[in-house]
Design goal:
Thrombin, subunit H, alpha+beta, disordered N terminus
Length: about 425
């Protein structure tokens, strides 16, 4: 049981009455103290054994006898008992009586209330989501000119997003052309998995196992996240020994971009201080409602800095994979940068909103529509776009051949143009 404390207000007339009552009680205490002093003197006068017996001056004083010590202690006990009996009841009444007042309460009174004891957020989320978290183990065979074939094993996490066996994870977890891929479930089952789709730039992959009626996680809305809200990570740090470890923290930053290797930047990531370690990759980052808001991907070199891919970027991809069995990405033919990414590629350029067109490739839909380097796209199909995640989510929700309405700013003038999307070439995937 936990306790809560509240301060309750009180009316002024009640305080006035209370002050009058206090003064009366103080006068009563004063009178009782006077009576105690008189009783004390009477008790002392009745004692016929002196505490110290004076002798001849040249011999000094005689050490008090044991009887004297006993008599002194007895006198002190009697006096103390009388004082306590006289003062304490009035003192306690004066201090505690106001707390026993019926429907009113003293100003600043502390009223204790009891609340029922429930599971905390992390425990409730863990119970809901843990059955959907899996361990993914891979074996990759590499061929070496000098040593022949060499196999390497990898391990990571994943989360079930559909009862028919679709699992979302990282591209680096599944690796490059694994010879074996095994998925381990909470109920003890081990099933072979197949990589349906992978994007190394996004660091996302979808694995399929042949199963039915699997527990599937609920997906949240990463666009609605705010800094400071609850973030809970579940995964398999350090391999099988610490399977389905739950760590709790907060969303400590949004739209973060981080360079993972020379020339490669992951953009618009969710930053969290929930512990993410090797093996957590591919596992879910979850909000306080038990909804998946991101896929854990990397940990920065500094402590308390982990990153996850926003779940909204995955939704159009997984929906098409589940519905059509494949995902074909579309593209406009531009190099888009949001305000965060400009800090990596063009530190001399600043934008307050929108997507900056850093480059336009010849012969692409964007070039045919007249977009140029330096233009700033503000809306697509009426939706405002300020981050690359939002930009890509809209494009990935479309199909090759679809026409989108693009609103952009060129030389402080706003324009709108229709662009027919094309299939993204293999070299850009």
């Amino acid at each position: 049981m936990s306790e809560g404390i509240f301060n309750l207000p009180v009316e002024d007339d009640f305080l006035d009455n209370y002050d009058d009552k206090t003064r009366e009680q103080q006068e009563e205490v004063h009178q009782e103290m006077q009576e105690v002093r008189e009783a004390e003197q009477n008790i002392i006068n009745t004692i016929d054994v002196p505490l110290v017996r004076e002798k001849d001056s040249h011999r000094g004083y005689k050490r008090p006898s044991g009887l004297s010590y006993f008599t002194t202690a007895l006198v002190g006990a009697v006096i103390g008992g009388v004082i306590v009996a006289a003062i304490v009841p009035s003192y306690l009444y004066n201090r505690l009586a106001p707390l026993q007042l019926g429907g009113n309460a003293q100003q600043g009174q502390q009223v204790v209330i009891n609340t029922s004891e429930n599971l905390n957020v992390a425990a409730a989320v863990a119970q809901k989501v843990t059955p959907t978290v899996v361990r993914i183990s891979t074996v990759t065979v590499e061929r070496d000119l000098f040593f022949g074939k060499r196999s390497s094993e990898g391990v990571g996490s994943g989360v079930i997003i559909d009862p028919s066996g679709y699992i979302l994870t990282n591209a680096h977890v599944v690796g490059e052309h694994p010879e074996e891929l095994t998925v381990f479930f909470k109920d003890g089952r081990e099933l072979d998995g197949k990589v349906l789709w992978k994007d190394s730039l996004l660091d996302l992959a979808v694995v399929k196992v042949e199963a039915a009626n699997l527990p599937a996680a609920e997906l949240g809305d990463s666009d609605g996240l705010i800094v400071g809200e609850t973030a809970i990570a579940i995964g398999n740090p350090l391999g099988m020994r610490f399977e389905r470890t739950v760590t709790q923290g907060i969303v400590s930053g949004l739209n973060r971009s981080i360079m993972v290797e020379e020339g490669s930047v992951m953009e618009d990531l969710i930053q969290t201080d929930a512990a993410i370690n090797p093996g957590n990759s591919g596992g879910p980052l979850i909000n306080g409602k038990g909804q998946v808001i991101g896929i854990n991907t990397i940990k920065a070199s500094a402590e308390g800095l982990g990153f996850a891919i926003p779940i909204n970027i995955t939704k159009p991809i997984t929906q098409k994979l589940i519905q059509n069995g494949e995902f074909v990405p579309t593209y406009m033919g531009i190099t888009p940068l949001d305000s965060e990414m400009l800090g990596y590629y063009a530190t001399d350029i600043e934008i307050q909103r929108g997507i900056y067109v850093y480059n336009v490739k010849d012969g692409t839909p964007a070039a045919d529509a007249g977009l140029k380097k330096g233009d700033v796209i503000t809306h697509i199909n009426g939706e405002e776009v300020n981050t690359l995640v939002k930009f890509k989510s809209i494009l990935y929700s479309s199909s090759p051949g679809d026409i989108i309405a693009v609103k952009y700013i060129k030389n402080k003038t706003e324009y709108t143009v229709d662009i027919k999307l094309a299939e993204m070439p293999e070299e850009y995937r």
